[in-house]
Amino acid sequence: MLEQLKVGEYTLTWLDGGVTYLDGGAMFGVVPKPLWSKKYPVNDKNQIELRTDPILIQGKSKKYSY
Q: Which of 11, 57, 61, 66 makes a 20 to 30 Å CA pair with 43?
């Protein structure tokens, strides 16, 4: 089931975009790996898991996706 939120005449729907992986060093830049790897564990390729859940905004006969 998709999560939805009504705000005035708009409906926000969270869609399931799945998971993608990004290089941890590229994501956090100059922040040392021992700091960010406590919260975001890495795989054998030094990648962290990131959710990719877009939000669909509907209202006034228009649809937007962010």
A: 66
What are the two backbone dihedrals, phi and then psi, of residue 10, each rounded to the nearest 5 degrees? -105, 145
User: 5 CB contacts (<8 Å, ≥6 apart)?
Assistant: 11, 12
Residue 25's domain spans which residues? 3-65
The DSSP output letter for 25 is H
Cα 45-48-52 angle, rounded to 5 deg = 130
- Digitized pLDDT (tens) for each residue of the chain, 66 residues in all: 579 999 998 999 999 889 999 999 999 999 999 999 999 999 999 999 999 989 999 988 777 766
